[in-house]
Structure formats: C-alpha cells, structure tokens
Specification:
The protein is mostly beta strands. It has a single domain, classed as Porin. The chain is built from 1 helix and 9 strands; from the N terminus they run αβββββββββ.
Length: about 220
C-alpha cells in the first residue's frame, strides 16, 4: 500500500500544472537614445509603443512569449555652446530630433514566481525589427552647431534591426484576465548606418528603455 501512495503522489503533482495559452494587447512609453561613434551629444527622446502578445506557459515557472509591436524611438540632440562662444544663449534655440518607427518581434523566455493571483516575472530574449519610416524636427537652418553633424543629413541606411531585450514585471491575475506592468531594456547589436572603415560613423546603435501595460486573456 505504501508503494502505491509513493507512486501516486508524483503523478498528482504533475497533473496539478496545466499549460496555458494567453493572448492580449499592450501599450506604453519609450525613452531612447543612440550610441554614436563619433559621439553625438543627446538627451532621451520619448515616444510610445503598442502591440500584440501571445504567451505559452509550458511548465511551472517557465514559458515562451512572442510579441509583434510598433515602437517609436530615435534621438534628441543636446546643443552646448563651446567655451568662449560670444552668444551662448543662441545655442538654446537649436533643436534636432530624429524619430524612427519600427515594427519589432521579440522572442522571449518568460520566467515567473509567485502565487496564483500575483506573479513577479522576468522576460528576456532576442529581438528583430524593421524600420518603417523616419521623420525629423529641426531648426538648424543649415548650421552645424554640434561637434558631429553628419547625421543631420543622413537617412538610415539599414532597415533591419536586431538585438537583445529583457526586464522585470508584475502580473495580477483576475477572473477577467491578466494585467501586467513591465519595464524593459533593448540594446541593438546592429547599426542603422553603414560602419565600414571609410564611413562617417563606426557605431550607430540604439538603446531603448520601455514601460508598458499589458492585458492578456486565456485562449485555451
């Protein structure tokens, strides 16, 4: 009888976990900049993100997550008058902002801990993206007020983007679905300008900090 109980307990433990399929929508804000070499003085550019999410929880504390998102990123230049410049206040009038719109697909490992109602999680994995368009806001009027200025007249030369992303989050599970608050960091391993020896830049790779809210419902 004791042997039967020992064999029966692992079976019941395995049966208590049920694989989950969930899908939903997300939206949030981004703060982005670009690692340029030669360096370009910048401050964070704020934009927005939104998309669709599908998550498959394959086993206890572990799952896979696929997203298709729209993300607005780019850079916002900061202009500082050189020491000894006769009219430094005129530098405050300069503005240059480049907004770049991407469709992106993160492929994430989803790790979570917690109770049935409240979970803490961490998502991480590779991400690919495609540049769908870019726009500029500027009032330079042909001036070259930064140490590096070639980017002002250069459109992106590479549309495909790839990199790594990840971050923590909190999930509240209710009878009408799952509500998530997540922070995420993305670092591009590619450049949107050509970076060969003869090119202007040896590096032009974005970084993006994101915060977003998601709503998921069971689909299976």
């Amino acid at each position: 009888m004791g042997l039967v109980v020992v064999l029966f307990c692992p079976v019941r433990a395995q049966e208590t976990f049920r694989k989950e399929w969930e899908a939903g929508v997300s939206g949030g804000i981004n703060a982005s900049s670009v690692f340029f070499a030669p360096k370009v003085q910048q401050q964070m550019l704020f934009g927005y993100n939104g998309g669709l999410t599908v998550r498959w929880t394959t086993e206890k504390n572990l799952g896979l997550q696929l997203e298709v998102n729209f993300k607005q990123q780019g850079w916002n230049e900061r202009f500082e008058a050189p020491e000894g410049y006769p009219n430094p206040e005129t530098y405050l009038d300069y503005r240059y902002i480049r907004r770049m719109n991407y469709i992106e697909m993160p492929f994430l490992t989803h790790i979570y801990f917690g109770s049935e109602r409240v979970r803490f999680f961490f998502n991480m994995g590779p991400q690919i993206g495609w540049l769908t368009g870019e726009s500029t806001e500027e009032n330079l009027r042909g001036a070259t007020p930064n140490k590096t200025n070639a980017q002002h007249t250069m459109a992106a030369e590479k549309k495909f983007a790839w990199g790594l992303c990840g971050g923590p989050g909190l999930e509240i599970r209710t009878g009408i679905g799952c509500f998530q608050l997540e922070a995420r960091y993305y670092y591009s391993l590619g450049d949107f300008y050509n970076t060969r020896r003869q090119d202007v830049f040896s590096k032009a790779s974005p970084q993006v900090f994101s915060a977003k809210l998601s709503y998921l419902i069971p689909i299976r």
